[in-house]
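Q: Convert this sequence to structure tokens.
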Amino acid sequence: MDRLAFQEWPALLRRRWILIGAAGIGFLLVGLAVFFSLGDLVLLMLSGMLTLCTLLHCVEFYRTVRRRRYQAIEVTCMALGRPSIGRQREIRLLLQDGREVVVTWDKRVNLRIGRRYRIFYCLDCAPPHGGAELHDLPAGNLLLALEDLGESCAGTAIEDKEDA
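A:
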């Protein structure tokens, strides 16, 4: 199996992995500070469990990227649906090859219409709808990182046609 050294990781994935680990350590430090100042053992145990879960996520993230079990695709956001009750919304994306896909992501994923994005997503899990073409369906639970690449040329062309 071809493994990817940490220095060869995409910068966005490196930064995200470091932030996940730092958040886990931060949870533990806050729990320790509260424990030593107030003697609250319950909060220390809760922060310890949160730290453990965060660090386990960090380890899984590391294994996923190191073993190259992820894919990166570039898309343009074409439309954002209204958030539903379950905090999900449908997003219409235009792939590089001209195909459009509709994905359902958490409404907190910050996307803007007409902007290009590079999406890093995990290849380990089965597609959410049981369908084929996992490479075209980056569901919210498979999302590793999202990089904003700026304005889309197609988006500016669409705006220019509307102005004319």
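The chain is about 40% helix and 25% strand.
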